[in-house]
Please model this.
Amino acid sequence: MTNLPDQRITLHGFNNLTKSLSFNMYDVCFTKTREEREAYIEYIDEQYNAERLTNILQTVSDTIGAHVLNVAKQDYVPQGASVTLLVSEGPVVEVPTDSFDDSATAMPESVVMQLDKSHLTVHTYPEFHPEEGISTFRADIDVSTCGEISPLKALNHLINSFDTDIVTMDYRVRGFTRDIKGHKLFIDHDINSIQNYLSEDIKNMYDMIDTNIYQENIFHTKCRLKEFDLNNYLFGYTKDTLDSRSVEEISDRIKSEMDEIFYGRNIKK
Model:
């Protein structure tokens, strides 16, 4: 895995480049009956409740070297959860200004504060097919940082935190900062693919496709598990309890669902 280099560029002021990393992670399951579907959604809702998602994002914050300023979390009814963390590159310093005179322009409650525009968010979406017995769970995650801290450091932890069959990732750098001579810098690190920052273990697990727009500092990678074991997609039983025809039919349904998610389009059967 490529290590992220420390920032060594001498800047004119604060590094206000915004680096955003977005994930869509999908888990697919075959749920033949309504009871299986409800049990699967209940299981997912329990596994990825707001409390656990908060712990995942707090570990992400530690991994990228950020400081948590505020946490907002919510479990929804009937299912789903959301968590948002506001983070800063360094501890926020508050300086009270209490030596004002009595003039009309005095501001006795004013505070000078370091401002940061960084956040981590996650939203979950359990979903099911109305007819074909396929249930899916999607987690949408955004890691947006301003300054030298990089969301790319969170890649491996986030993928390993979810049982995910398909991952789509988008990374983009926006804004600009200036070097000591005033020259604009629209990116402060070398990158030609998100894959450069993935561990070898993860790269060996997935087939990957890149769609990158280098001149716009936009990078997109899609991942799909290489190995298919039907037992990983059955809820509450194993393929040994099925006849060979059922094994083939269910496998085809699940693979078709994964194809459509991976390629982002409906595929005629």
